[in-house]
User: What shape does this take?
Amino acid sequence: MKKLGELSVYNTISSYIYLNILFELTVMKRNPVACIFDLDGVLTDTAHYHFTSWRRLGRELDYELTEEKNKLLKGVSREGSLALILEWAGIEMEMEERKMLMDRKNEWYLEEIEKLSESDRFPGVTEFLDELDREGVKYSLGSGSKNARNILNKIGLAHRFKWVVDGNDIKKGKPNPELFIKAADMMEVSRSETVVFEDSTAGLAAALKGGFLTVGFGDDPELSELAHFTIKSWKGFSLDDLSEALSAV
Ligand code: B16
Ligand code: MG
Assistant: This one.
């Protein structure tokens, strides 16, 4: 028979264990089944080169593209971006001429990204991908860019992505969710348990429409208005951090 003192020590210990289990269960991490990464502005800073190339084109049309307006181009397809610039500049243009301008912008963009290398990956992103691999979390690329495969090669990540959906594979660009839905279908995962990492409001809107969990990447305050949560950098960001943040969603 246990004495009274022993019993209360025993009870205290078991309550402590019980509370700990309860805590673990309630604050428990929610592991994603998969992740989808946008490319420009999420894995590498090519978003900047899109901006400088569009601005250069704008200047040829006597239109100055500001950083503020450029935010609205992020994630938007080449055709969609030109259409917006022409609208802001008050210019009407036939499709044939538009195509010429898009080609010219793309040539400048390709010149800008020519020198991209592994060192142009955002710091910390490689470690995060390593962790996903170790933990068996699937991931794919979900980029609206037709240059995505080329860029993935340049930054040395092509072999890491088993699944890639880019601007060549879709009919409707962001903010339409087609691209992300295609990526989730390819991975055969549930959308509501898949996280999309995006630096653009168009991309976040697409992911939300598709029923995904969303993480805004970058320091634009507008991202936090849309995304489930945001991160400013990959440095030090772990799967544990992601799972903890998801448990609050
Ligand atoms: P391209 P993401 C998007 O890539 C860019 O954010 C957007 O600025 C660009 O217009 C679009 O790709 C099309 O790119 O001209 O290379 O086909 O952010 O979805 O990875
Ligand atoms: Mg982007």
In short: Strands lie at 34-37, 138-142, 163-165, 194-198, 213-217, 229-231. The first strand starts at residue 34 and ends at 37. The CA atoms of residues 84 and 126 lie 34 Å apart.
